[in-house]
Each structure stands twice: as C-alpha cells, then as structure tokens.
Design a protein that fits this description.
The chain contains nine helices and no strands. It is mainly α. Helix 5 (about 85-100) runs antiparallel to helix 6 and helix 8 (about 140-155) runs antiparallel to helix 9.
Length: about 180
C-alpha cells in the first residue's frame, strides 16, 4: 500500500460497497487497510472507514478473529493519536485474543508492544516483566532479549537477569546485537 492514489482508490471502492454486505473477511481486510492509512498519516481517509468499522464490529462480537482485529485497530488508533493509556488497554486485549486463537507469533508481537508502551510511560518494572515474559516465549528474538535486558536494568532489577537476556541475544546472533 505504498502508492497513495491506489490506497485512496481502494478506500473509495470499499466505501462504495454496501454496509449490509459486511462479512468477517471484509471487515478484517478493511481494518488492515485502515491501519496502513493511520500509520501513513492519512487520518482523514481512515476516519470514514473507522466509523464504518466501529458500526460493524459489534455485529461480529462472537467472532474472535473480528474482535482481535477490533483491538488491533483500536491499538493503532491510540498509538497514532498518542493515547498511551488506551493503547495499553488494547494491546493487552489483543495479546489475550491472539492467545485464545492460538496465534503465538502475534501474541508475542503484541506483548513486545506492551513492553514498549510501558517504557513510554516510564513504568520500567512493568516493561521489564512484559519483555521478560515475551523473551522467554520467543528466546530466539534478539531485539526482545535486548529490550528485556535494558528494561530490567532501568527498573533497577536483577543484574544477573539482565545479563542473561543480553547473553541470550548475543548467543542468537552476535552481529545483530545493539551494543547500547
């Protein structure tokens, strides 16, 4: 979705479709497009689709795939507007929903986002716990291990734990480790 004109044309096509024809696949596809629009700074274009999705999500509240999509979109909206408190609530909900769906990869990714939000809020102990949890679930992720080490030290936590995370990162791939 790098071509602005194509994105706008796609949005126009989505908006031309009747709302009554909503389906799980269409809602998740629209939400993916809206997330791209939000992260690219195309907020006006995203706003109309967001309003439409806000009306559609409750109709599919029994579908866990749609509900995780709702949380991910709400997380993105909160992040681009700087509402870290809302982003925190949504990232926790999204991670839980991904767990319920058995989607370990996305659950890990959102738990990593949780650590990042806690760091932004200056909640270093919470960030350290979040990163430690996700690093133990994804031990081969260099970045998560580095962030777990850094957050543990900033929280005034156990130096041995921080060193263990740092060593895990070096063990996985010494060339990718950030020396900061």
């Amino acid at each position: 979705l790098g071509d602005r004109e194509r994105v706008v044309a796609l949005c126009d096509r989505l908006l031309a479709m009747p709302e009554a024809a909503q389906s799980e696949r269409r809602i998740t596809a629209e939400a993916s497009v809206v997330r791209c629009l939000l992260w690219r700074g195309m907020h006006d274009t995203a706003a109309t689709l967001c309003a439409r999705l806000d009306r559609a999500f409750p109709l599919f509240s029994a579908d866990p795939r749609v509900m995780v999509c709702a949380h991910v979109l709400s997380f993105s909206r909160a992040r681009v507007t700087g509402d870290e408190a809302q982003a925190l609530r949504e990232v926790i909900s999204a991670a839980r929903r991904f767990d319920e769906l058995g989607d370990r990869r996305n659950a890990c990714m959102f738990r990593g986002n949780l650590g990042h939000i806690y760091m932004n809020l200056g909640r270093w102990a919470d960030a350290a716990r979040a990163y430690a949890r996700v690093a133990s679930s994804c031990p081969d992720d260099v970045v998560l291990n580095q962030k777990a080490a850094r957050a543990t030290l900033r929280a005034g936590g156990d130096v041995k734990s921080a060193i263990a995370f740092a060593l895990q990162a070096v063990t996985v791939d010494p060339m990718l480790v950030d020396a900061r």
